Amino acid sequence: NATAQVTSKLKLYLAVWSFKLNEEKDAWYGAANWNNSPGGFRAASALNTESDVGTELDFVATYKYNSALTAQLGVARFFTGKFLETAGRVNATGNIDDMDFAYLQLTANF
């Protein structure tokens, strides 16, 4: 992860995250259902031979307009790993898609 204070008002943040199964035969769990949903996002399988779920790249720019208002723009891309390819996580055309996410957040302090 890296952070750069470009100006007194603008800060940039870059992060890389690697997601892996605990074991090749494990399921892929979400944060909300790790302990109460059998199978998670994808059930465990004795046939699974991959543990690499994928890699996420995050970029966040934070601009402090003044002491009361801050704007934040975030963009992320998830590059699917071998686990999703072998797990059959495909789209309608039969391809494994990387996933994108973006947000804009305004924070007002009173």
Relative helix content: under 10%
Helices and strands, in N-to-C order?
EEEEHE
- Count of DSSP E strands? 5
Rg result: 18 Å
Largest sheet data:
5 strands, antiparallel
Provide the low-confidence segments as ranges.
Answer: none
- Determine the mean pLDDT: 83
Strand content: over 45%
**What is the tally of helical segments?**
1
Could you write a compact summary of the structure shown?
With 110 residues, this protein is mainly beta. The protein contains 1 helix and 5 strands, in the order ββββαβ.
Q: Features of this protein?
A:
mainly beta; 5 strands; 110 residues; 5% helix
Topology diagram in text:
Elements: E1 2-5, E2 10-20, E3 52-64, E4 69-80, H1 82-86, E5 99-108
Characterise this structure.
The chain is mainly β. It contains 1 helix and 5 strands, in the order E-E-E-E-H-E. The protein has a 5-stranded antiparallel sheet. Strand 1 (2-5) and strand 2 form a beta hairpin. 8% of the residues are buried.
